[in-house]
What we know:
Number of strands: 9
Distance between the termini: 83 Å
Strand order of the largest sheet: 1-2-7-4
Structural class: alpha+beta
Number of helices: 18
Shape: globular
Largest sheet: 4 strands, mixed
Low-confidence stretches: 108-112
Amino acid sequence: MDWITWSALVALIGLIYYFFAKKYEYFDSKPIPLVRPTFLLGSTAPILFRRRNVLTHVNEIYYTYPDAKMIGFFDLVNPIYMLRDPETIKQIAIKDFDFFSDHTPMLSPSEVDEDTETLFGNSLFALRGQKWRDMRATLSPAFTGRKMRHMFELVGECGKSMASFFRAELEKGEDLELEMKDVFSRYGNDVIASVAFGISVDSLRDKENEFYVKGKDMLKFNMLKMLWKVIIMRSMPSLARKLKLDFTDAVFIKYFKGTIEDNMKQRKTHNIVRNDMIQMLMDVQRGALSHQQEEKDGKDAGFATVEESAVGKATHSRTWSNNELIAQCFLFFLAGFETTSGGLSFLLYELCVNPEIQQRLHEEILQTSDSLNGQPLTYETLQKMEYMDMVVSESLRKWPPMPFTDRYCHRDYLFEGVAEKPFIMEKQSTAWIPIIAIHRDAKYYPDPDKFDPERFSKENRSRILAGAYLPFGVGPRNCIGSRLALMEVKSAVYHLVKEFEFVPSSKTEIPLELSRKNTFGLQTQNGVWLKMKSRNVIG
């Protein structure tokens, strides 16, 4: 290699270094503290190379400057504003929502395809701008307390079936040692199959049923293939669009769409009506789904419920394609399969290692059961269980479904009162809300690692800052399915704790070790193993 080639190569390397080094100067003009980046990796290396789990990683950044309301760090070479102050979080997520109405796009902003055919791209989580607003308004009437009451029977049947299965297993004579994430993945699968897809499956008795197996395979595929897809989508967005890259396997997408479309066809042909999301999609297509004027749900499903904003109650005239509507069922599938099952696993773990809390909850469940006089559990009765709601609310504090969320800045935004002087957050910047770090900050929750449902008693709830309790997000972009998730969780806990006691087994980890493989959610390294014992309570 001659000296000219060497010189060109050195110059090229120098230009590349200069290009990326300039990116790391972004926060130099900002009056907020910065977590010093590693070249090319920013603050991402520990989690990218699996040296930290997501809880430790978020906490490490969060506590770098414990007195700051906001700090800067880099995700690879992308500047991120971490919000540490509940009032600032409410300011951008609620008061100034129009500046921060979207999540950060996977593709670069100039390459976002508004007409994408991908399931993930059409899901409520990924939609942006006016299209997101219209879809939110379209779907929100399906998640009111009124609709949940109609849907409760489907969810309750899954809980009763799960309890019946374990009752029969325990009658064989020995206590059961169970990995709870597997148990609740199957339960969540059955609920979503019934509620979102209009089909009946029993994943505890029929462990290899097609719906469950394809769902597991799809999620496994995502975990293995996610990285290269993200790289292409972020670095070569035009190519990603041409390839129609999605986060799901094409075989699963075909099965998924076919299941819903066949179900809709059968209902139209035979005039079948069922209180589930398939019916909701059909109602949307007919323009028959809207908010009732008298509906004021508030926190009818519990303290953790998030309320719908004016965005979700707006009217619109958009016509949706089958693909755009089916994409929402895909999102509910992911939430039911992973998020809810993980949350239930952590909750049962806490009841296991806090037997006095489990016993008090069991007593409330028995009192509730007695009050029914042999009648089935109802949605209204479930919501009246105060200690149940306290336990669930505390579990969502300690183990939130999403450890963090983000908001994307649409136009230059002036921050005042968060640093020593005002400053501009530029258009196309990302703000990060570290939910799990805030939930475990002793400033807001004394002795934060202790599982203490009394934090959410009627007497103590007023002490909880609105911007410091975010299990389902905050503002108009909060989780649309909070009522469904809470109903699913409470129904499962009711039927299980009523009949069974959960105690540590030889495989129970105390404390739990979190996995370093999952960078998006909380997942244990070795599962959540518990022993189930019969209480000899029937009915």
